[in-house]
Amino acid sequence: MTLTILVTGASAGFGAAIARRFVRDGHRVIAAARRLDRLEALAGELGPALLPLQLDVTDAQGAAALPASLPEGWREVDVLVNNAGLALGLDPAWKASLADWETMVATNVLGVIRLTHALLPGMVARNRGHVVNLGSIAGDYPYPGGHIYGGSKAFVKQFGLNLKADLVGTGVRVTNIEPGLCGGTEFSAVRFGGDTARAAALYAGTQPLMAEDVAEAVAWVVALPPHVNINRMEMMPTCQGPGPLVVKRSG
Ligand code: NDP
Ligand code: 8X3
What we know:
Blueprint: E1 4-8, H1 13-24, E2 28-33, H2 36-46, E3 50-54, H3 60-69, E4 79-82, H4 98-126, E5 129-134, H5 147-167, E6 172-179, E7 182-183, H6 187-191, H7 196-203, E8 209-210, H8 211-223, E9 232-235
Parallel strand pairs: 1-2, 1-4, 2-3, 4-5, 5-6, 6-9, 7-8
Helix pairs in contact: 1-8, 3-4, 4-5
């Protein structure tokens, strides 16, 4: 069955890989992001099964108007992949920029809830659908400098679990994908304000997850039979693991 899938943040990283994967699997993808030129290049690569859509997920009106603004034949969205998101900075909380904190909340929290609010009623009315959120291990494990980013991803995780509680009895599924260290995307360059050398250093000597690994996970949870719901999927590269708690000793 051909699904209509809306992927936010499809101009780079995971979102572009997820869009590519779904089109190759025979589905139709509405690829949303702010950088329209990137989306049009993706459409040039993937053909008419990909519909570019310029969308800033922090724009409340744009999200609310989204379903009605889609072209005829694209309005019944079967799968929403809430992927657009970002981390800004890695300084300790007391040195962090309030504007950065607010941008992370606007994108990672408000963006997710607005698009979900816009598209969920249609899914419930049709008694089928799937909301796939891009959480993070940062929503599971705290780390220094993670403050609002980790907090936003913990929200995304718990929001998804609470949606699931409401959706019992409907055919609508909800999944939180929680990746760890992942290279080959713009994530760390964005986090470090465009400092690509600092971003590259983070991955030096590692074999991180790649965007295609995350796309594989998203494709798998969506392709499962309709009675199977993966609530959460935490994934790390083999070279990563949790660390010990820290105790600061005097002397
Ligand atoms: P990238 O920076 O490579 O891509 C982020 C995407 O989000 C871009 O397409 C960007 O597009 C889009 N985006 C950002 N802000 C907005 C906005 N206001 N409106 C619409 N789109 C927006 O990051 P990744 O692909 O690595 O990350 C994707 C998701 O996965 C994020 O939610 C991230 O938190 C999460 N994640 C990433 C991990 C990693 O290590 N890379 C690990 C775990 C989770 P544009 O600028 O064109 O709008
Ligand atoms: C991205 C993974 O560990 O940088 O969500 O927070 S991490």
